[in-house]
Amino acid sequence: MSHATNITALRSDFPILAERVNGQPLTYLDSAATTQKPAAVIAAIADYYRHDNANVHRAAHALADRATAAFEEARRKVQKLLGAQRAHEIIFTRGTTESINLVAQSHGGHRLRAGDEILVTELEHHSNIVPWQLVAARKGAKVLAVRVTANGEIDLDDLDSKIGERTRIVAVGHASNALGTINPVDEIVRRAHDAGAVVLIDGAQATAHLDIDVAALDVDFYAISGHKAYGPTGIGALYGKESLLESMPPWQGGGEMIETVTIEHTTFNRLPFKFEAGTPHIAGAIGFGAAIDYLAAIDAQALANHEATLLRLVTDRLAQTEGVRLIGTARDKVSIVSFLLDGQHPHDVATLLDQQGVAVRSGHHCAMPLMQRLGIPGTVRASLGLYNSPADVDRLVRAVEKTRALLT
Ligand code: C6P
Q1: Tally of domains in the chain
Q2: pTM (predicted TM-score)
Q3: Cβ pair 184, 146 in contact under 8 A
Q4: 382 lines ligand 1 (CB under 6 A)
Q5: CA–centroid distance, residue 181 to ligand 1 (Å)
Q6: Nearest Cα to 145, choosing from 388, 101, 130?
Q7: Nearest atom within ligand 1 for CA of residue 361
Q8: What's the pLDDT tens digit per position in 351-360?
Q9: Which of 92, 139, 205, 272 has a Cα-to-Cα distance from 335 of 20 to 30 A?
């Protein structure tokens, strides 16, 4: 298959980018919240509902066969995306949040004992903190956090000092949604395994930007969301090592996840269905599969170069803009830049940027412990996707300059 190398030309694959907002052309810089969807993904979802819609794994009729085949094909696409060895190690979920809750409730609920420790970091999204607090409270376990340095990197010395014989689970993001920091997950997996802990990686912000290979990483669990990687909302996946998934009890009961049911007793279905109670988001999985195909047709090196160039450009331009303070200057970053403008509240800045057609996110980015650590209420965050261009960076910088003039 030939791979698209002209990344700039791909912008026209995204119909929404032709929208105007507040009377201005749209400059979409909020891809870390959710990416826009290419026409191929929108078409795959519509085609499924037009031609193949039926429930999966249940009926003997032709449409049910087609829907089931398409759904299981999507699972194999996720398997390939993550580098998993077996398709049944991929569990479809609503997204990263649900994937982490599944592991916390099922694995954590089953294995944790009073006094055990779960290690997260100060960089984590709330989705990789709160599920652990819930299970820790239930089991008498403790959640500890590794410190983050002033430039937004995980302090590996602090990690070493906090991993101990009570550590059962280490849960860490692959890339930070608030600052863009790429974490040294291979090193973290190694150190956690040396201490006998299992490792979950929150891959929400990695999927669209980084190569993922769960087998090479030897990670135990990896959680992702389709909508952060050009797929639809409401669908995501959990990768889990077969041996761990086999040892875990189901976490939700219902149809699909059973083998036999009597009023007194149930035996459970095999993997992955044991963890997929109820009718799944079939169209979502198919749309996610189409997004994976879309990404796979792009030259990975060209895409990485495009995003690295944009990140350098936006970082340099903002650093040179009067009144701007960059937050998070790690060496390795995905294309996310966080900043503050003079003493202005991030929400005020984002509102004025929106009036100029520039969509960014502002606030704590669901990372309140990180904001507390950095001593700030929040940031303005510009996050870039494959469809962004130097012209978008230019519009952002001009809008920031104008905003500063308006506010000061
Ligand atoms: N971050 C952002 O604007 P869900 O909502 O389940 O698809 O993903 C949750 C999640 C988990 N981990 C990380 C690192 C994330 O970035 C997110 C979602 C969005 O940054 C919405 S809060």
Answers
A1: 2
A2: 0.98
A3: no
A4: no
A5: 14
A6: 130
A7: 3
A8: 999 999 999 9
A9: 92
